[in-house]
Specification:
CATH topology of the largest domain: Rossmann fold
Strand content: 15-25%
Number of domains: 4
Helix content: 25-40%
Shape: elongated
CATH superfamily of the largest domain: P-loop containing nucleotide triphosphate hydrolases
Distance between the termini: 38 Å
Radius of gyration: 25 Å
CATH architecture of the largest domain: 3-Layer(aba) Sandwich
Length: 482
C-alpha cells in the first residue's frame, strides 16, 4: 500500500485544507473531486480522481501536464488512484495533445469555476462554453476531443485504515465481481464484509437490475459458509398453493396422493445460505410463515408432527419499498444492505461499461478486434456523455443492453450511441432554488420534492435548495422518511 505525499507545489491528496474550510467540507460530506470519465489517449486511467481542497477565497488551480506551479502561483492538480485505504499517485495527464495548464479552476464564494486556456474547446454537460463556467456536483467537464471529467466528491477521511482484505486492480472487478471506485461502491463493499461476518438474516434491497444478486453471492462467498453451495430460489415463482411445501418440504403422499417426499428449501439449505430472491413478492400471509424459522430455525414439514431445526442462513432480496414487506418479517432481517442505482454512482458507469465490454470481448474476439486498443475499449465521447448523464430504470441490465446495441450498430473503430430511442433520456436537473436553512423545511416539503424528483435524492436536494446531499440525508433521518 502506498500513500501520496503532498508538498507546497502540488495538490495530490485530500488533506490540504485550512481550519474552518476543512471542517465545513467534512460536515458537508468531503471535498470536491474531478473524476476522469474518458480520455482519448489514456483510457487506462479512467476512475482516477484529483481533489480540489477548499482553500482561501479565490484559490486557483490548473489541470494538465504541469507538475509545478505557474508564474501566477496556480497549483497543479494531480490525479490519484484513491481508495478508502490507499492513495497511489497517477500524476498529471501525460498526453501530448494536452497543454501543461489545460484547464484553469478557481474557487469563488464556495463555487467552482472552470475555463479552458489550453488547446481545444470546453464543453459543460455537452454544451460548448465560450469562457469561464461555474460547475456543480454531477456536471461533466469536457475538453472536447481530449478528456472528460465528472465533478464529484471524496471523503476527507480517505485514506484510512484498511477494512477490505482482498486486493484487486484499480478500476477492475473485485473477487466478487463488483466494479467501482466511488464512495457508494466502497460503502457497499464494507456492508458486504460486515454482513458476511455474521449469521443473522440479511436483506438486500435496491432497484431492479442494480446488482442485488451479485451482492448476495458476495456475502455468501465472504462468509464462513463459502465452499458450500448457495441454495437460491425466486420467491415470485413459488405457486401460492405450494409455498409451504416448497419452503418446508413434505412427507410422501402429503398433502396430495402421489406427492414425492421433499426436504424443502430449508432442508436443502441446512448448513449453508438460502437465498430468496424477490422475497417481497410472497403474499404477506406467507411471509408470516417464515417468522418462526427466522427466530429459532424451527419448522415442520407438511404432514409431519415433529419439529425440525435448520441452520440455513436466510438471505433475501427485493426491489420493493421496505414498507411494503410485512413489518414483522422486515424486523427479523437484522442486516440490511442497500444497493444504489447507477444514478447514485455515475462515476462508476464507465468502469462498469469497460468491464462489460471486456466480458463481451472474451467471448467474441471480433469485438476486441473492432473496438479495443490493447485491453481498453474505445468509446466515442458523445456515447460516454449519454451513458453517464442518462436516467436508468433497470440499471446494469439496461447498460448491458445498450452496449450490445452499440456493438451491433457501430461501424467505425469506436463504440457510438445506438440509433433510435433505446438510450435513457438525459436527466434534466430541476431548476435550483435559492439556498435555504435546513431547519426551515417541513416533512411535507421534503416528501413533495422527492415525489417531484421520482425519488432520486441527487436531484431532490438541489430541488429543496440544500447545500449537499448530506443535508438531505439528515432531513430524511430527522423526519423518519425511508
Amino acid at each position: 500500500m502506498s500513500q501520496t505525499n503532498e508538498n507546497d507545489s502540488t495538490l495530490a491528496g485530500a488533506s490540504d485544507f485550512v481550519d474552518g474550510e476543512a471542517s465545513l467540507e467534512a460536515a458537508e460530506g468531503g471535498c470536491r473531486a474531478l473524476v476522469l470519465l474518458w480520455s482519448r489517449d489514456e483510457p487506462e486511467r479512467v476512475g482516477e480522481a484529483c481533489i480540489i481542497p477548499r482553500r482561501r477565497q479565490g484559490a486557483t488551480f490548473t489541470l494538465g501536464r504541469a507538475r509545478s506551479p505557474g508564474e501566477d502561483g496556480a497549483l497543479p492538480l494531480l490525479f490519484n488512484r484513491l481508495r478508502p485505504f490507499e492513495s497511489s499517485e497517477g500524476g498529471p495527464l501525460h498526453a501530448a495533445q494536452v497543454s501543461r495548464r489545460h484547464l484553469r479552476l478557481r474557487v469563488v464564494r464556495g463555487e467552482l469555476e472552470v475555463e479552458h486556456p489550453g488547446r481545444g474547446a470546453l464543453a459543460i454537460n455537452g454544451a460548448r462554453a465560450g469562457g469561464a463556467a461555474t460547475v456543480k456536483e454531477g456536471d461533466i467537464i469536457e475538453s472536447v476531443g481530449r478528456f472528460m471529467l465528472l465533478v464529484g466528491r471524496r471523503p476527507t477521511s480517505w485514506p484510512e485504515q484498511p477494512r477490505f482484505a482482498e486486493a484487486f486492480p484499480f478500476g477492475r472487478a473485485d473477487a466478487s465481481g463488483i466494479v467501482g471506485e466511488s464512495q457508494a461502491t466502497w460503502v457497499l463493499r464494507r456492508q458486504i464484509v460486515f454482513a458476511a461476518g455474521r449469521s443473522a438474516p440479511a436483506l438486500i434491497h435496491g432497484a431492479s437490475g442494480c446488482g442485488k444478486e451479485l451482492v448476495v453471492q458476495a456475502i455468501h462467498r465472504s462468509s464462513r459458509l463459502d465452499g458450500r453451495p448457495l441454495v437460491a430460489r425466486n420467491a415470485a415463482t413459488l405457486p401460492e398453493s405450494l409455498i409451504d411445501a416448497e419452503l418446508f418440504g413434505n412427507l410422501k403422499n402429503y398433502p396430495n396422493p402421489g406427492m414425492p417426499e421433499r426436504l424443502g428449501l430449508l432442508g436443502d439449505a441446512d448448513g449453508t445460505s438460502l437465498f430468496l430472491d424477490e422475497i417481497g413478492e410472497l403474499p404477506q400471509a406467507m411471509q408470516a410463515h417464515l417468522l418462526r424459522v427466522m427466530d429459532s430455525g424451527e419448522y415442520q414439514r407438511l404432514g409431519e408432527s415433529r419439529r425440525r431445526v435448520t441452520t440455513a442462513r436466510l438471505l433475501g432480496a427485493t426491489n420493493r419499498e421496505l414498507a411494503e414487506l410485512k413489518h414483522d418479517l422486515l424486523a427479523r432481517f437484522t442486516h440490511r444492505v442497500f444497493v444504489c442505482g447507477l444514478e447514485e454512482r455515475r462515476e462508476d458507469i464507465m468502469l462498469i461499461a469497460r468491464h462489460l465490454m471486456c466480458s463481451f470481448a472474451a467471448e467474441d474476439p471480433a469485438i476486441r478486434d473492432a473496438f479495443f486498443v490493447g485491453d481498453e475499449p474505445r468509446f466515442a465521447p458523445s456515447f460516454v456523455h449519454r451513458l453517464v448523464r442518462g436516467r436508468y430504470t433497470t440499471h446494469v441490465r439496461e447498460l448491458t443492453e445498450m452496449l450490445w446495441r452499440s456493438v451491433a450498430a457501430s461501424t467505425g473503430s469506436r463504440l457510438e450511441a445506438p440509433p433510435g430511442d433505446p438510450l435513457p433520456a438525459e436527466r434534466k436537473e430541476p431548476e435550483p432554488r435559492a439556498m435555504v436553512e435546513i431547519k426551515s423545511l417541513t416533512r411535507e416539503q421534503v416528501i413533495e420534492a422527492l415525489e417531484r424528483c421520482e425519488g432520486v435524492r441527487e436531484r431532490a436536494w438541489r430541488e429543496l435548495g440544500l447545500r449537499s446531499r448530506h443535508q438531505l440525508k439528515r432531513l430524511l433521518k430527522r423526519f423518519e422518511i425511508a
